[in-house]
Amino acid sequence: MFKKILVANRGEIACRVMRTARGLGVATVAVYSEADANARHVRMADEALLIGPAPARESYLVGERILDAARRSGAEAIHPGYGFLSENEEFAEACEREGLVFIGPPASAIRAMGSKSAAKALMERAGVPLTPGYHGEDQDPDLLAREAARIGYPVLIKASAGGGGKGMRRVDDPGEFSAALQSCRREALSAFGDERVLVEKYVLRPRHIEIQVFGDTHGHCVYLFERDCSVQRRHQKVLEEAPAPGMTPERRAAMGRAAVEAARAVGYVGAGTVEFIAHQDGSFYFMEMNTRLQVEHPVTEMITGLDLVEWQLRVASGEPLPLRQEELGIRGHAIEARVYAEDPQRGFLPSTGRLLHLQPPEQGEHVRVDTGVEQGDEITPHYDPMIAKLIVHGVDRAQALGRMRRALAEYRVVGVSNNIDFLARLVATPSFETAALDTGLIEREQDRLFPEQPMAPEEVWLLAVLAELAGPEGQAGSGAASAGAPWGCPDAWRLNGRGLRRIGLRQGEQLREFSAESCDGGWLLRSQGPQGRAVFARGRPDAHGALQARLGERNVQAAVLAAGPRRHVFFEGRCTVLERVDALHAGGDAHQQEHSLRAPMPGKVVAVSVRAGDEVEKGAPLLVLEAMKMEHTISAPRKGVVSALHYGVGDQVPDGAELLEFDDSD
Question: What mean pLDDT is predicted for residues 270-290?
Answer without folding.
Answer: 89
